[in-house]
């Protein structure tokens, strides 16, 4: 994305890591049909992006999630399940926003995090 759109996926500033929003796409930018699978893939993409800056889910302190299509129960159920999986010892600060559209037409979720590597 750096070459195509001139932005960074992750930036480390001292002990703080900021990442750009990660959707539930695979390496070919294909979005799963299932919203649960899309959210699961977004969490994996966050993990991979954090790793490029020397961080991981255990370092995450704040999450912004952006959602297209409202908030049926499966959204919060899936998000909570994945928080418990990736951060079993604590819960992050979480801001959840409903929006009209994301960067790819098929996207229904994008996750952006801040991590502190101490």
Describe the overall structure.
This protein has 118 residues and is of the alpha+beta class. Helices cover 30% and strands 29% of the residues. The protein has 3 helices and 6 strands, in the order αβββαβαββ. It has helices spanning 2-5, 35-51, 73-86, and strands at residues 10-13, 16-19, 22-23, 60-68, 93-99, 109-116. Strands 1, 2, 3, 4, 5 and 6 form a 6-stranded mixed beta sheet that branches. β4, α3 and β5 form a beta-alpha-beta unit. α2 packs parallel to α3. It is globular, with a radius of gyration of 14 Å. It starts with a helix and ends with a strand. The model has no long low-confidence stretch (mean pLDDT 94).
Summarize the structure.
The chain has three helices and six strands, in the order αβββαβαββ. It has helices spanning 2-5, 35-51, 73-86; strands spanning 10-13, 16-19, 22-23, 60-68, 93-99, 109-116.
Helix content: 25-40%
Beta-strand content bin: 25-35%
Rounded radius of gyration (Å): 14 Å
SS field, number of helical segments: 3
Protein structure class: alpha+beta
Large-scale geometry: globular
Mean pLDDT across every amino acid position: 94
Low-pLDDT runs: none
Largest sheet: 6 strands, mixed
Report the end-to-end length measured between terminal Cα atoms: 28 Å
Task: Provide tags for this entry.
3 helices, single chain, alpha+beta
Topology of helices and strands:
Blueprint: H1 2-5, E1 10-13, E2 16-19, E3 22-23, H2 35-51, E4 60-68, H3 73-86, E5 93-99, E6 109-116
Parallel strand pairs: 4-5
Antiparallel strand pairs: 1-2, 2-6, 3-6, 4-6
Helix pairs in contact: 2-3
